[in-house]
Amino acid sequence: MAVDTAGQSRTSFDLKSAQLPVVAVVLKSTDISAFAADLAARVADDPEFFDNDPVLIDLAAVRESADAIDFVAMIEALREHHTQPVAVRGGSAEQMQAAHEAGLIAAPDAPVREKSAQPEVREVIREVVREVHVPVEVPGEGVPTVVVDKPLRSGQQVYARGGDLVVMAMVSFGAEVIADGNIHVYAPLRGRAIAGARGNTEARIFGTCMEPQLVSIAGMYRAIETDLPADVRGKPAQVRLDGEKLLIEPL
Fold first, then answer.
1. How far apart are CA 158 and CA 142, in angstroms?
2. Residue 125: closest CA among 213, 48, 217
């Protein structure tokens, strides 16, 4: 350890906590050939959807399966689509050992959400296996709402920590707006909108021109892979959580 002229110790590095964007792939079948085909189909219309994102493989849904999982083939399939598989969670002891031998590390299991007794609502929206832990924060000590009055371009990201986010300009495809509370967009919303980022199930997303690429509330995600109904597409609408389903409704 070196000592500077002021008598303060210094080293060649610092240790700090960090939050990184992570894609969670929730595996629903042990058939990795089918997984690879489905993954290729999912990103066919948007080859740049992933940008070397770290990947966490969630095995909770296949934990009881007796079939072996070819983690090497799965890792190769994920890397072909510009992701970096790094961790695995939720599997049986045998699955976790096989994943470890393939080069993946074990991650903590996710907390279990209590199921709602409300009836299931089906929509023209399909589930996307993507979780985002926000790397960019706009701290607002003493300011519960963050206001953005400039357009957000593809690749840009804004996070309103601890409060609501109000965007007065367009959120372009590929941009991301995130808030621990509600999100209000008074312009076309064409990128990703993530409200209730720290688990607030009462958070909502409001937009005057609803055309999102992806919406999420309290960890429940939906990618808009088919056209929205005519009563909400490009019109004022809101997104809210109903049990474990996301509803997009006209305002």
1. 18
2. 213
Cβ distance 66 to 27 under 8 Å? no
C-alpha–C-alpha distance, residues 194 and 132, integer Å:
9
Helix (H, G, I), strand (E, B) or coil at 221: strand
What does the block give as tokens for 60? 């909770």
Q: What percent of the chain has pLDDT over 70?
A: 76
Half-sphere exposure of residue 235: CA atoms within 13 angstroms, side-chain side: 11
- Beta-sheet strands, E only, within 111-236: 126-127, 145-148, 157-160, 164-167, 176-179, 183-189, 192-195, 205-210, 214-217, 220-223
Burial class of 2 by CB neighbour count within 10 A (0 to 12, 13 to 18, 19+): exposed
Q: pLDDT (tens digit, 9 = 90+) per residue, 188-245?
A: 998 889 998 888 899 999 999 998 888 888 888 777 766 778 888 888 999 998 887 8
The C-alpha atoms of residue 112 and residue 160 are separated, in whole angstroms, by: 25
Average pLDDT over all residues of the chain: 78
**Which residue has 């009563």 as its token pair?**
231
Confidence of residue 135 (pLDDT cuts 50, 70, 90): very low
Q: What angle do CA 143, 147, 153 make, to 5 degrees?
A: 140
| Pairing mode of beta strands 237-242, 183-189 | unpaired
Beta bridge partners of 206: 184, 238
